[in-house]
Amino acid sequence: MSNDSLMKQMRDDVLYGEIEDAEALARRVVEEGIDPLEAIEKGFSAGIEEAGERFHSGEFFLPELIAAAEAMKAALGVLEPELAEGQQEQSSLGLVVIGTVAGDIHDIGKSIVSSLLSAAGFQVVDVGVDISRDKFVEEVTARKPDILGLSALLTTTMPEQKDVIEALNEAGIRDSVKVMIGGAPVNEQWAEEIGADCFAEDAIAAVDKAKELLGASA
């Protein structure tokens, strides 16, 4: 099977929620020495992105979206240790704390961003979903990250991104960390409005933006 065919199969396995097949294909990536980052970026991520697009267009419903997310998680479960192992001999580009804001339990998009940031050489601490502004302040205070990533997948939870930045200001630590925001309803205008340092439209863009924020070479 050609490399392009392999990537298409990865995409299809995630898109159509073939959990066991996606996991098996991820193991094949490891066994055959294929670059796990390339497999995620060009294969598996393409599937979850298209599943999201089909969900928003009404072609997919929630069960299909959940199945795709589970297939993606299965593949990442195999590939993430490989990414971490490959990073062991590399110096970290910086520390990123990332989480989904309070009231929002969406996880898969944030998890993909975390995986790709790790693969690119960042040290990543994923604090989870439904994280309060006080918890974000606590994490920034304790860990002193270079970047704080705030994810919001709902229009109703977007204001929490602004509240977290205001809480950082109130705690006197806003200038100590770069704030990156993302999520389906989020855009560049919103980032400017709430005082975030940047907006990333997807996981691949998040890696590029993180490097730009810290002055690392792409």
How would you describe this protein?
This protein has 218 residues and is an alpha/beta fold. The chain is built from nine helices and five strands; from the N terminus they run ααααβαβαβαβαβα. The protein has a five-stranded parallel sheet, with helices on both faces. The protein has helices spanning 3-15, 19-31, 36-57, 62-87, 108-120, 133-143, 158-170, 188-194, 203-213; strands spanning 95-101, 123-131, 147-151, 178-182, 198-199. α1 crosses α3 (36-57).
Low-confidence stretches: none
Numbering strands along the chain, what is their spatial order in the largest sheet?
A: 2-1-3-4-5
Mean pLDDT reading: 89
C-alpha Rg (nearest Å) = 17 Å
Topology, number of strands? 5
Largest sheet: 5 strands, parallel
Total of DSSP H or I helical runs spanning 4+ residues: 9
- Which secondary-structure class do the elements indicate? alpha/beta
Helix content: 55-70%
Order of helices and strands: HHHHEHEHEHEHEH
* Oligomeric state: single chain
Apparent shape = globular
End-to-end CA span:
31 Å
Into which percentage range does the β-strand content fall?
Answer: 5-15%
